[in-house]
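User: two proteins, same treatment. go.

Assistant:
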Amino acid sequence: MKLILVFLSFFCFSIFTSHAQLLKGLLKNNAKDSSVANGVAALGNLVKGNGSGTGLSKDDIIDGLKQALEVGANKSVTQLSSLDGYFKNNAIKILMPPEAQKVENTLRNMGLGNEVDNAILTMNRAAEDAAKSAAPIFVNAIKGMIIQDGMQLLKGGDSAATHYLREKTTASLTTSFKPIVEQSLVKVDATKYWNSVFSTYNKVPFVKKINPDLTGYVTEKALDGLFYQVAQEEQKIRKDPVARTTDLLKKVFAQ
């Protein structure tokens, strides 16, 4: 009888031990499987460009940056093409070019300040008028822009994307925008006032005659103003959730 009890006890212990070992093995395998699964997922993220830890793909980032610039460009055009969009914005108001500062001072001292004021006003009016046609030019430049390192721009300064846009597209934008500015200068009589100012100045005895390139100067300053305003809009999108008006902007700039 005792022998039977001993045998049964040994048998039960053996079964318990084998089940425990089996359970331990299963748990170990599951842990390995989980590690493998996690590794595969991480590798997949790297392949898709998610290795940054943001959960964003490279395409998400680049598309988001371009969309931010497009939104900024459209809003900037709306603002700057309105009456006094340039003229009453001290940050971008177009003044006489540096080489013409002497002209301005001389004519004002001669009592011809109105002519100078009209020249300055009409330069700004020309920029405002030309800005109405700037949106498609900017948007096309943005869409065609190649961004190699979107993450660097996303994590860069408050206006990193605008700075990159300016660096990459100023030459092409100038070529496209200059004829529009030239038409606007004629439309608002800026050319007439400009010529009046400089022809009057050049008649003054013993002064060096100058005649700056009006179209080139206003084109440059008008683009400066547009880039400045786009940068302001980019900063809003980066800092203010309310400015993120699309799902993509919310996704990219919420990181």
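Protein 2:
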Amino acid sequence: MEKSSLLSRVLKSVFFRSAGGRAYRTAKNSRSILKLVQDALQKSGGLSGANAGIRAQLSLLTRLLKAYASGEYREIPWKTLLRMLAVLIYFVSPIDFIPDLLPVIGLTDDIALLMWLFSSVKDDLEKFAQWESRKDIIPIG
């Protein structure tokens, strides 16, 4: 299945629509965000090899969400936050468009969705990475 066709089908699926509804509730609760981040990091441990770049981007995304949940970083549009949370909710769910339990192809939909997310929120992730690199700098003077 072509990646764009798969992505289109995933975005229209009942599974992703359900994740979108849950994202709204999750966004209002810092503990829920942190639990989702923990679950996503645990699942991402299985990403390696060709998916190492996705794992690195996922690490940046989870740091952003942790900083958001703690109130440390809020420079993110609400719509972008909901999109990030919806994709992570979908990602951590074992039952989705292509169930994760299926060998070889089980993560295909998750990977396509993560790649779409990273592309669509690239500017927000870069802005956070810049903020993150500056926040530990102690001004002299």
